Amino acid sequence: MKDSPTTGHNDAGPSHGGTGTDLAAPEGTALENRFANPGLPAHRFRTTDTDPKAARNAERQVSTIFLLSFIGTVVFLVGYFALPIEDDKSLGRLQLSTLVLGLGLGFAIFCIGIGLVHWAKTLMPDHEQVELRHDIRGTDEDRRDATNIILDGVEESGVMRRTVIRNSLIAALGILPIPAVVLFRDLGPLPGTVLRESLWEEGVRLTRDPDGTPIRAADVTFGSVFHVIPEGLAESSHPIEEKAKAAVLLIRIQPEDVKPIESGMINQADWSYGGIYAYSKICTHVGCPVALYEQQTHHLLCPCHQSTFDLTQHCKVIFGPAKRPLPQLPITVDSEGYLVASAGFPVPPGPSYWERGVSE
């Protein structure tokens, strides 16, 4: 008995989860004829596509949103200059300034985003298109076509003929970068001599951080570590900035544990007092606080990137990305037995920057 050329099982195969290979059968096959291409759905026109009055209303709405963004940026600028925190360092002023700046800038960026979305949804063409795949590198003709598509897109967007939208968007985007420029002002002055100078100078007492209590040499025992700031730091006009340059670690070790100064180095023989050494607390890599001291090895460690400085070799770098030793602060004692600086740092503390000399 011959098998039927077409069985019910075979007919039902594709409709019961046929593979992608089955659906990609060559043209002219029965399988291809079985599934007609549904094509694109009928295009649904928007109100703004058919009603010029609605299009004008949408255009005014987009322009209004962009102008609101402009106002938000103005609010930021007014708040920045009208609520300076340098004159009033209270918590209330800081909170008010942060609120005004955040709301102003956030509202400006939000309105630009909403305006662009509303513009695209209501006024830019939304016709469905089919684009066939092609080689990554097209022919010169294809490349010219791509350029024409971009130019057509500019034309279809209406940016050249909808002058109200275009000009309001230019105004909103033009003023938006100003807050960033203004905020650069808070990064501080250009290096110049500012980074070379600190509150340390001859006769300035070493005091405990943070209470500012002066330190007697007799109070520094072997193996002890003091976090030190210069006397009068709290009274300076910029205490945070000054502390970032003047923070010091004070450590006492046996003088015989310190190796002789290598030839070619600055003469630091008289910069310590009875085995008491003072070194900048600011890592020479990227400025993290060097606050970890291994008493047995006399190593100072930076917790950020593991730069290690050997106190017995005048804080020479023995491991990690830092390239320069920690600057040493020359110290001595005054007539009352308190530790004082005998001079400022010989080189700028902290990480390298472009105005440093080769020897620094």
From TrEMBL:
Family, similarity comment: Belongs to the Rieske iron-sulfur protein family.
Name used for this protein in its record: Cytochrome bc1 complex Rieske iron-sulfur subunit
InterPro entries attached to this UniProt entry: QcrA_N, Rieske_2Fe-2S, Rieske_2Fe-2S_sf, Rieske_Fe-S_prot
Alphabetized PROSITE patterns for the sequence: RIESKE (PS51296)
Highest taxon of the lineage: Bacteria
Compartmental location: Cell membrane
A Pfam family recorded for this sequence: QcrA_N
Native source organism of the sequence: Quadrisphaera setariae
